[in-house]
Amino acid sequence: MLGGVPAPRITLGLDARRVTVERLAGKQQRDSALLRMQRAQLHSARLSAGLSDVTQLLSSLHASIQIRAARGEDVPVRQKEAYQASEVSALRRLLSHPALDLDEESVEALLPLPRSAAFKLHAAMAAAKLLSSGLEFAETEQWYNAETYARELLLERWYQDLDEILALLVVSATEVRLAAQLGVAHLDQA
User: Fold this and answer.
1) Is 160 exposed, middle or buried (0-12, 13-18, 19+ CB in 10 A)?
2) Model-level pTM?
3) Which of 53, 89, 156, 188 gives the lowest tally of CB atoms within 10 Å of its CB?
4) For residue 98, how many C-alpha atoms fall within 13 Å in the half-sphere facing its CB?
5) Domain annotation covers residue 1
6) What's the total number of domains in the chain?
7) Angle (deg, nearest 10), helices 77-95 and 148-189
8) Is residue 122 situated within a structural domain?
């Protein structure tokens, strides 16, 4: 001790301990992040096929709806109504796909994935449920008794909802597929 001032060696010892604790904490955070990513990859491996399947099926239906809409007024009214009924039925069936009814734990496990894939998947699932409940109206007598123009407006809104669901699903399904592939690649290397 020099004039009441502690020797520098003690301060250096405390600094070294602090740095060691910070390094250990940083290592634990990295290990935790790695564990969360591996968990996301594991869940992705389970979910990837179903999400890809429903995304492709909805994309195909969306394309056929757009083709029909492009034909527009060239189609007789009765035939147009039959197409619409078929499209609504197919859409309701696809929106009840198990890949769009995941438990919270499965979606939460995907949080480490890029491009906010978990949030987009959750939003797509919520929008799909909402649209599905709206499509139930198309099976009521009120639907068939409604004016053609009113049905057209409602169908247009439902098809816009499908656009939004598809945009969200494409991103989340892609990220889930990539995470599953990355997880499998890590297993191959081990």
Assistant:
1) exposed
2) 0.81
3) 188
4) 6
5) no
6) 1
7) 40
8) yes
What is the average pLDDT value for the chain, to the nearest integer?
86
Please report, to the nearest 10 degrees, the dihedral formed by the alpha carbons of residues 15, 17, 22, 25 taken in order: -170
- pLDDT, residue 156, reads 93
In a domain, 100, yes or no: yes
At 177, which amino acid appears?
R
* Tokens found for residue 75: 């189609």
Structure token digits, residue 72: 């527009």
What pairs with residue 5 in β-bridges? 2
Give dist(CA 11, CA 158) in Å, integer.
Answer: 68
pLDDT over 60 at 36, yes or no: yes
The neighbouring-strand residues paired with 2 are: 5
Could you give the angle at which helices 8-71 and 77-95 cross, rounded to 10 degrees?
Answer: 160
Residue bearing tokens 């083709």: 67
Please give the Cα distance from 84 to 64 (Å, whole number). 11
Contact 175, 115 (CB under 8 A): yes
Q: What is the pLDDT of residues 95-145, one digit of tens each?
A: 999 999 999 999 999 999 999 999 999 999 999 999 999 999 998 999 888
Place of tokens 């995941």: 102
Q: Which domain holds residue 143?
A: 8-189
Q: Is residue 136 part of a domain?
A: yes
